UniProtKB/TrEMBL annotation:
Residue spans of biased composition, Basic and acidic residues class: 373-383
Name this protein carries in UniProt: DNA polymerase IV
Similarity comment: family membership: Belongs to the DNA polymerase type-Y family.
Lineage: Bacteria, Bacillati, Actinomycetota, Actinomycetes, Bifidobacteriales
Organism, scientific name: Pseudoscardovia suis
EC number of this enzyme: 2.7.7.7
C-alpha cells in the first residue's frame, strides 16, 4: 500500500488531499506514516516528530488510529482473496500473493491480475497500492518498491539479476548500516559489485557462512522462499514512549502495567493465549534492554501477565520487587513495553496446573469452606477483564481501568 496510514486518513477526509499529512502526535513520538506531499519536505517514517515539525511546519499532524487502519487492511486483503487464497500477510499494508494456481482463470496473466487489484483497491477504498510481479519474493518486493507510488512493475525471470544489480546496495534485505560498512571495506558499494564477490569473500566480509550464501544468491536475484499462507503471529506486544524521561520506578511500573492491559486485550480479541512474557526498556541514551520468562500456563489476562512483567522490570532496573514507587533508577527510562509470545489458540490451549494449584485443590477437597483457589480467582478475573473489553469498545480505552497491584 502507498503511504497506507496517511492514505486511509485522506480517504475518510478528502479535504486533506494534496496536503502534507503526517501520522503521529506527541512531543516525543515518531512519524508512523507520511503522505508523498509530506515526503517532499524530507519527512519519512520513523523520524522523530520534532524533526518532522521542523521540516514541515505546515503539515497536518494526525494521531494513529490503528483500529481504522486494520479495518481498511482487512478490506484490502479481501480483494486479494478474490484472486487467490495463497496469501502471506507481511504486515497491515503489505503481502505476497502466489498466483501460480490462478493463472488459468485470467487470460491476461499476472499483469491483468495486478491491474485488477490496483483498480479494485482504488475504486472500493479510495486508496492506492503498488504491485511488483516477479518469479520470487525478493524481486517482487523490490519491483513493488520501485513502482511506488500507484504503479506496477513486471520483472521477467530471465532479468532478475540484471534488475537487482542496478538497485542500491541497501535495497537488499539484511544490508543495514553495519553490513554496508563491512562490505564497503571490501570495495563493495553497489549490488553489481556485490555480485562480483565470491562466497569466500562474503564469508570474510560478513563473518557468517549463512549470510554469505544469502547475499551471494540475492546479488543474482535468487530467492527460494515460499509464500507462507496464514503464518501465525509470533508475539503480541505494546510499548509507549514517555513524554519525558523518568528516573523513578513508579511511572515506569505504571506504564508496564498499562501495557499488560493492552496486550491482554489484544490477545483476547485474537482469541490467543501465550506462555512467555517479555519486558523491554529503552533508556535515555536509546539503549534497549529486555528480559523474558516462560510460564507453565497460558496467559490472556493482565492480572496474570503483570506480576511476571513487574518482576522482569525490577530485574532490568536492578530494584527489589517490593521497592516503592519513588525508588530512584540508575538511568532515566525513555520507553517501556511488554509482549507475550509462545502463542496458541485460546480454544485448544492445554492448562498445566501449578504446584500451588494442586495444593489448593487438595485443600479445597478437605476443607470446602476454604477461600477460593487461585484458578477460581483467575477465572473470575478473566470474566472481569472481558467485561472491561466490552466497556472500552463502547466508551473508549480510557473509560475504565483494572486495578492490579496494591490499588
Amino acid at each position: 500500500m502507498d503511504a497506507f496510514f496517511a492514505s486511509c486518513e485522506i480517504a475518510r477526509n478528502p479535504q486533506l488531499r494534496g496536503l502534507p499529512v503526517i501520522i503521529g502526535t506527541g512531543a516525543r513520538a515518531v512519524v508512523s506514516a507520511a503522505s508523498y506531499e509530506a515526503r517532499a519536505f524530507g519527512v519519512n517514517s520513523a523520524m522523530p516528530l520534532s524533526a518532522a515539525r521542523r521540516r514541515c511546519p505546515q503539515g497536518v499532524f494526525l494521531p494513529v488510529d490503528m483500529a481504522y487502519y486494520r479495518s481498511v487492511s482487512a478490506q484490502v486483503f479481501e480483494i486479494f482473496e478474490e484472486v487467490t487464497p495463497f496469501i502471506e500477510k507481511v504486515s497491515v499494508d503489505e503481502g505476497y500473493l502466489d498466483v501460480s494456481g490462478a493463472l488459468s482463470a485470467w487470460s491476461g496473466g499476472p499483469e491483468q491480475m495486478g491491474a485488477w487489484i490496483r483498480q479494485q483497491v482504488h475504486d472500493r477504498l479510495g486508496i492506492t497500492c503498488s504491485v511488483g510481479i516477479a518469479s520470487n519474493k525478493l524481486i517482487a518486493k523490490l519491483a513493488s518498491t520501485t513502482a511506488k507510488p500507484d504503479g506496477m512493475l513486471i520483472i521477467p525471470k530471465a532479468r532478475n539479476a540484471e534488475f537487482i544489480q542496478v538497485m542500491p546496495l541497501r535495497s537488499v534485505p539484511g544490508i543495514g548500516p553495519a553490513m554496508e560498512k563491512s562490505l564497503a571495506a571490501w570495495g563493495c558499494t553497489t549490488v553489481a559489485q556485490l555480485a562480483r564477490l565470491s562466497e569466500d569473500d562474503l564469508l570474510h566480509a560478513t563473518g557468517s557462512r549463512v549470510e554469505a550464501e544469502r547475499l551471494w544468491r540475492a546479488a543474482r536475484g535468487q530467492d527460494d522462499r515460499r509464500v507462507v499462507v496464514s503464518a501465525p503471529e509470533k508475539s503480541v506486544g505494546y510499548e509507549r514512549t514517555f513524554d519525558v524521561d523518568h528516573t523513578t520506578l513508579g511511572p515506569v511500573d505504571a506504564l508496564v502495567r498499562m501495557c499488560c492491559e493492552e496486550v491482554a486485550s489484544r490477545l483476547r480479541a485474537r482469541e490467543l493465549v501465550g506462555r512467555t512474557v517479555n519486558v523491554k526498556i529503552r533508556y535515555s541514551d536509546l539503549r534497549y534492554v529486555s528480559r523474558a520468562r516462560s510460564l507453565g500456563r497460558p496467559l490472556d489476562t493482565a492480572a496474570d501477565i503483570y506480576p511476571t512483567a513487574h518482576e522482569l522490570l525490577c530485574d532490568i532496573l536492578a530494584v527489589g520487587t517490593d521497592a516503592p514507587g519513588p525508588t530512584r533508577l540508575f538511568q532515566p527510562v525513555r520507553l517501556a513495553g511488554v509482549s507475550v509470545s509462545s502463542l496458541e489458540s485460546a480454544h485448544g490451549a492445554a492448562y498445566q496446573p501449578t504446584f500451588e494449584d494442586l495444593l489448593e485443590q487438595e485443600d479445597a477437597e478437605t476443607n470446602p469452606s476454604h477461600i477460593r483457589s487461585q484458578s477460581e480467582v483467575r477465572a473470575k478475573t478473566g470474566e472481569a477483564e472481558k467485561a472491561i473489553d466490552d466497556i472500552r469498545r463502547r466508551f473508549g480505552k480510557g473509560s475504565v481501568g483494572f486495578g492490579l497491584r496494591g490499588e
